[in-house]
Amino acid sequence: MDLAEFRAGLDRWLDDNAAALAPDRSASHGLDEQMAHLSLVKRASYDAGWMRWGWPERVGGLGGSTLLRAYLGEALTARDLVEPGIYSMTEVLAPTMIDYAPPALAVEMVPRLLRGDETWCQGFSEPGTGSNLASLSCRAVRDGDGWRVTGQKVWTSLAQYAQRCVLLTRSGTPESAHRGITALFVDMDTPGITVRPIETMHGAPEFCEVFLDDVAVPLDRTLGDEGQGWAVAMDLLPYERSTSLWHRGAYLYRRLERVLAAAPPGALTPEQVGEVFQQVYAFRARSLATQHRLAGGERLGPETSLDKILLATAEQAVYDLVGDGLTDEVLLGDDPAGGRWRSEMLYARAATIYGGSAEIQRNIVARRLLDLGADA
Amino acid sequence: MDAEERELFAKSLGRATAQHTGEALDAALDELGWADALAADPRAAVAGLFEHQGAANATSSALDLVLAAGLGLDPSRAGLAVVVPPLGRWSPPGEAGSSVRGLGTAALARRAGAVVVSPTAGGAGAAAVVVAPDGLDLRTVGGIDPALGLVEVAGGGLAPASRPTLADGAWPAAVAAGQRALAHELVGASRTMLDLAREHALERVQFGRPIAAFQAVRHRLAEALVAVEAADAALGAAWDDGTPFSAAVAKAVAGRSARTVARHAQQVLAGIGFTTEHPLHRYVRRALVLDALLGGAHSLTRRLGEDLLAGRSLPSILPL
């Protein structure tokens, strides 16, 4: 299956099934509805084969280039069938699971994620550990043939829906920094786990606090070796900054098109429209090259921070345009369309915060790409 | 050219632009067979030369060859200069083939002929005349970047020596080719400005440590790299895509990026970067003029915005 064949077949399938795959936006389309609809779309795409292309055959995939995955997510988000953030969790978590999970575990679990049977979450940040990930303190202690885990995570996206969690724990001494971290694959229904969604300013409780109180995790749920958790995290983060960003960029382009169509004449100046378009375009050009590097088998690294910076900047620029072009809808609208613009506009404020803040991305660029040495 | 040949050729161009500028660089390019390379592999020739030319702050008249090739003129006419529109503009600089106002490279006066393109009546197409340079009013421009050696071109009552036929879309294709070349030159200049600022930040010690250790400085340099790589990516997409639309976007992004890099590099280089003892000022000057040639970030962006607002939809762009 090459990309052209995939694109043509998928587009035809999406056209034919447009009605069945379209979300109902007539009333409240909150996070519960979005998650339910995401499962429906993933299930249908999996059963029709599309969701399986670009993933290795040993985990239920059909093989082929990762570009096929990139195009599937682009098509689903650009057609406004799924919200890119919740869709792309698959792109963030599945590749690392394939790289680091014991093979039998990956074979058992990855198809459930692809098929939309399950939601997974990513337990990285903690109350005392945001940008400084290596300082995390959620404790994992070896106990017989397993681990006992106690601690707290925060900003854990979709934890309230998740059946599993890729959890970073402190297995070494508190001073062991990045050397003493172990990654675990944890069932969210294990006794001792409590999830509390966090109300956010954009109105969707997408992030959660996760409390872990003496949670038992079997040894065969260790991702990589004991103490290899930092490598797992470093493997995962470039995925968080590659194909999932391509999907979000595709969605952003469609929303930019919508705001141009919907803004009253004179509300937007040509200068601002032209510049925002160029920002989205330049991101897409950058991300396009990244998708091809990934498909060519290159190992992605710190250079994906440039993709992340470009997208976060472009996203805020697009929604600044929304604020100027659709002022009444965003500020006063109480209908579903107005609520959606408002929620997205507010959520864009977080684009330079989540997934490694704008400052952390620039630190990575300075240290790793410009080789400026350690900072003061 | 295959990948290895492209790399070798780019290295030769790097040496040529580091050692020569102006007429001497034109001669070096002749020796390297650059005009043949432009015909055989335009991307390798243009990217290789203009990026290095920008990085070295060198000048050449290669833009004339790029524009002539873009217009589809016979390669045997390679001794032609092409008059470009005034700063910030990209419409044909001539009027009815009888008068012209625009700019040219330093080589214009030495060329056998100068190509003046005018819009045809109705404005849809374009027609070219070739005139003798000594029939034009030429003024060597000092301005903000005297080393660039641009000439201001004006003339009325032109007496054409010949009237080459232009194919449909020849002028937009030539503008696009020129915009890609200038965007490469801007990216090259931007990379050097960033390198200069980076070296200074690592060497300059204050408060007992290199200023590169301070986050305020690091983030300026990071911002500059983001800008350069955005322009580089847009330019790569412009070659793959090949349309006037993508060339104009790349030119605008490269122009804005170069200004961003210049601003951060100037601030990081501080006092020394404000003197003529340091090379930065030459790049700052060059970037401002290159940005304005064949449409600047400002004018191209406004036109793009006008078109998008009028169409109220977006084109399909950059497929996987």
Keywords:
heterodimer, A: 376 residues, alpha+beta, Butyryl-CoA Dehydrogenase, subunit A, domain 2, Butyryl-CoA Dehydrogenase, subunit A, domain 3, 3 domains, 4-stranded mixed sheet, 4-stranded antiparallel sheet, 14% strand, B: 320 residues, 3-stranded mixed sheet, 9 strands, globular
Describe this structure in words.
The complex is a heterodimer of chains A (376) and B (320). Chain A has 14 helices and 8 strands. Chain A is α+β, with helices and mostly antiparallel strands and 376 residues long. Chain A has a 4-stranded mixed beta sheet. Chain A has a 4-stranded antiparallel beta sheet with strand order 2-3-7-6, with no helix packed on it. In chain A, helix 11 runs antiparallel to helix 14. Chain B has 3 domains: 72 residues, no CATH class; 90 residues, Butyryl-CoA Dehydrogenase, subunit A, domain 2 (Beta Barrel), CATH 2.40.110.10; 142 residues, Butyryl-CoA Dehydrogenase, subunit A, domain 3 (Up-down Bundle), CATH 1.20.140.10. Chain B has 10 helices and 9 strands. Chain B is globular and about 70 Å long. By secondary structure, chain B is an alpha+beta fold. Chains A and B meet through helix 4, helix 9, helix 10, helix 11 and helix 14 of A and helix 6, strand 9, helix 7, helix 8 and helix 10 of B.
Low-confidence parts of chain A lasting 5 or more residues at pLDDT below 50?
Answer: none
Mean pLDDT of chain A: 96
Number of domains of chain B: 3
CA distance, first residue to last residue of chain A: 51 Å
Q: Which CATH top level class of the largest domain in chain A fits? A: Mainly Alpha
The number of helical elements of chain B comes to: 10
Which structural class is indicated by helix and strand composition of chain A?
Answer: alpha+beta
Strand order in the largest sheet of chain A: 1-4-5-8
The percent range for helix content of chain A is 40-55%
Output the radius of gyration of chain B. Answer: 20 Å
The CATH architecture of the largest domain in chain B: Up-down Bundle
Q: In percent, how much strand structure appears in the residues of chain B?
A: 5-15%
User: What is the radius of gyration of chain A computed over CA atoms, rounded to a whole number of angstroms?
Assistant: 21 Å
Largest protein interface, residues of each chain: A-B, 47 and 43 residues
